[in-house]
Design brief:
By secondary structure, this protein is of the alpha/beta class. It has one domain: Nucleoside phosphorylase domain (Rossmann fold). 36% of the residues lie in helices and 29% in strands. It has six helices and ten strands; from the N terminus they run βαβββαβββαβαβαβα. Strands 5-9-8-6-10 form a five-stranded mixed β-barrel, surrounded by five helices. β8, α4 and β9 form a beta-alpha-beta unit. α1 runs parallel beside α6 and α3 packs across α6. It binds S-adenosyl-L-homocysteine. S-adenosyl-L-homocysteine binds next to β5, β9, β10 and α6. The site of S-adenosyl-L-homocysteine (SAH) has 18 residues, from β5, β9, β10 and α6.
């Protein structure tokens, strides 16, 4: 039976999701709150992890191993690398990588450690579902590569390096770690992000200005995916 996890990194990213439900059960675990709801007969667990790869891994693992979730959706905001992505635009990750993982001193490629892989691919059926939502509701959705690292990138040079090294279209701080966890535990996942900034020198200001509106766009789209998920 389907039990769905919906994750964000920040409170602002899950607030517009939780707002859809009236009967919410809150469970505290590992310094975090997990919000359990039922929607159209589907059990859903919602949580925000806190920012960064470590907290995101902890939350994803908890949702799967403790709460028994067997599908995971991530909703949040990201910085754009691909110049065709504008504020508010939605990107769904085809695959994700860790841009700050570096043992290149031993001849390995960026983003790689033995036993791992540079890229983790998202679930094809969930991407298909996202494209259906996009087509049916006429909401623009871009497929692309998302690069994750424990840095808020507000620097043109770093952004371009990440773009060139990983062919990435957007960057953020949680997606790839969630992907690693889901891949290892055999849980299909989808990472959706709405653009809050362009990871350049104005990124901090742009992020503060557009966090709420972009997080809402992502959450609204995710709710449409939830309505169709099987
Ligand atoms: N303003 C927050 C910090 C936000 S960090 C505070 O002070 O607490 C940025 C968050 O949004 C991360 O969760 C990350 O996944 C995403 N994000 C958006 N734009 C980003 C960028 N340019 N670089 C890295 N992460 C970005």
């Amino acid at each position: 039976m389907l039990k769905l996890a919906i994750m964000g990194a920040m409170q602002e990213e899950i607030e517009p999701l939780i707002a859809n439900f009236s009967d919410v059960k809150v469970t505290e675990f590992a310094n975090n709150k997990y919000y359990e709801v039922n929607f159209n007969g589907i059990d859903i667990v919602i949580a925000y992890s806190k920012i960064g790869k470590v907290f995101a891994s902890l939350t994803a693992t908890t949702m799967i191993e403790k709460f028994g979730c067997n599908k995971l959706l991530f909703s949040g905001v990201a910085g754009a690398i691909n110049p065709s992505l504008k504020i508010g635009d939605l990107i769904v990750a085809t695959k994700l990588c860790q841009h700050d993982l570096d043992i290149t001193a031993f001849g390995h490629p960026y983003g790689y450690v033995p036993g791992g892989a540079v890229y983790i691919e998202s679930d094809k059926e969930l991407i298909e579902l996202a494209n259906e939502v996009s087509n049916d509701l006429n909401i623009k959705l871009t497929e692309g590569i998302i690069a994750t690292g424990d840095q808020f990138v507000a620097n043109e040079e770093r952004k371009n390096w990440i773009g060139n090294t990983f062919k990435a279209d957007a960057l953020e701080m949680e997606g790839a770690s969630v992907a690693v966890v889901c891949n290892a535990l055999d849980v299909p996942f989808l990472i959706l992000r709405s653009i809050s900034d362009s990871a350049d020198m104005d990124a901090g200001f742009s992020f503060d200005e557009f966090l709420k509106s972009s997080a809402l766009r992502s959450a609204e789209f995710i709710m449409e995916v939830v309505k169709r998920v099987k």
